[in-house]
Amino acid sequence: DAKTTQPTSMDCAEGRAANLPCNHSTISGNEYVYWYRQIHSQGPQYIIHGLKNNETNEMASLIITEDRKSSTLILPHATLRDTAVYYCIVRVAESGGSNYKLTFGKGTLLTVNP
Amino acid sequence: SAVISQKPSRDICQRGTSLTIQCQVDSQVTMMFWYRQQPGQSLTLIATANQGSEATYESGFVIDKFPISRPNLTFSTLTVSNMSPEDSSIYLCSVVDSNYGYTFGSGTRLTVV
């Protein structure tokens, strides 16, 4: 899997949008971008994923640049419960063998402040 | 998404002993994984639990230390053998969920004293 680079930490005010960047400059054409988060003392939770188009679900939006070398996860109205470590991961789209593995980096600790 | 029940949620164990962690999924899944998260660190993949065959271990992890069973498509166990304080970590199981990518259990927090 390609490597990703994320800021170590970010702060956000409650009610504001949180924009979490991720660089994946060596991403291949067949690799998806996945976002997970881990709230303290819990297992990672799936947020969203995408290949090249922007994606939106009930939790967040994912904006992928046209060259796919970076992406931004947007939490539109951050709450205190969104305080967590956010992981950006790239993984090949094809199934089988080692393609199923998720490789976690250090992620971004997002702290939402009241 | 799949629902994972992981047991125990936490344990304190004496060095030299072994602990078996169970992972039960509410649906049949092909791929199950075991991860370790050392204090203050990110997740590291230990192995892929294969149904009907031996687990596939990542570099740095061996079967003698972390034996894994996968008797069917909904259940797996990970044993941490001959424990030392360095094994104190959170251990998590994960499954491939076709709708959501991957689902993780809530983890087992192990402290070795």
Helix content of chain B: under 10%
Question: Biggest sheet of chain A: strands side by side, in what order?
Answer: 1-9-8-3-4
- What integer is the average pLDDT of chain B? 93
Could you spell the SSE succession of chain B in H and E letters?
EEEEEEEEEEE
**Mean pLDDT across all residues of chain A, rounded?**
91
Number of helices of chain A: 0
Describe this structure in words.
With 114 residues, chain A is mainly beta. Helix content of chain A is 0%, strand content 46%. In chain A, 32% of the residues are buried. Chain B is mainly β and 113 residues long. Chain B is built from no helices and 11 strands. In chain B, strands 2, 4, 5, 6, 9, 10 and 11 form a 7-stranded mixed beta sheet that branches. In chain B, strands 1-3-8-7 form a 4-stranded antiparallel beta sheet, with no helix packed on it. The radius of gyration of chain B is 13 Å and the shape is globular. The model of chain B has no long low-confidence stretch (mean pLDDT 93).
Core attributes:
heterodimer; A: 114 residues; mainly beta; four-stranded antiparallel β-sheet; B: 113 residues
Fold topology:
The complex is a heterodimer of chains A (114) and B (113).
Chain A: E1 9-13, E2 18-23, E3 31-38, E4 45-50, E5 55-56, E6 61-64, E7 70-75, E8 84-92, E9 108-113
Parallel strand pairs in A: 1-9
Antiparallel strand pairs in A: 2-7, 3-4, 3-8, 5-6, 6-7, 8-9
Chain B: E1 4-7, E2 10-13, E3 19-25, E4 32-37, E5 43-49, E6 56-57, E7 68-72, E8 75-80, E9 89-97, E10 101-104, E11 108-112
Parallel strand pairs in B: 2-11
Antiparallel strand pairs in B: 1-3, 3-8, 4-5, 4-9, 5-6, 7-8, 9-10, 9-11
In short:
Chain A is mostly beta strands and 114 residues long. Chain A has no helices and 9 strands. Chain A is globular, with a radius of gyration of 14 Å.
